[in-house]
Amino acid sequence: MIGFAGIVALTSGKASFKPDAVSGIAPAWAVLACLLATLCYGIAASFTKRYLGGLPSMVTATGSQLGAVCGLALPALWLWPASNPGTTAWTAIVALGVLCTGVAYILYFRLIEQAGPARALAVTFLIPVFALVYGALLLDEAITPLMIGCGVVILCGTALSTGLVQLGWLSRAR
What we know:
By secondary structure, this protein is an all-alpha fold. It is built from eight helices and no strands. Helices cover 74% and strands 0% of the residues. It is globular, with a radius of gyration of 19 Å.
């Protein structure tokens, strides 16, 4: 709840349903999409632990990637660009698919198996913190003291939920 409170505080001033001047999309839709993605992650991780717990993480990761390929093949063919992408684009796609997604999924499913879905998913609270850092480093976005404070709250909530940090009174209450 502490990490979630940090995320709510971080997005509270930005989440309106007025369309953005640049993209034409209301920021609140992005926040709602992130919440929906979080819900899907929670359901999928619990499902994975319950029904696929005995399978090696390589098998689970391969199956999930093949499912994604099947689900995205028809839209990809339908929306294929007029000119074929170059070698650089294909290399980037393969690198993203194999390194950033394939290897990450193997580690993710192994983490679900060994640590459990709740602890494996707790690190997703760190995504907004990384978004702030990447926005500042890559897009020269300004980071305010409020953003830093919200990031600290998120980090504290994540540390508590994963057991990295324990409060003495909390562990005695259990």
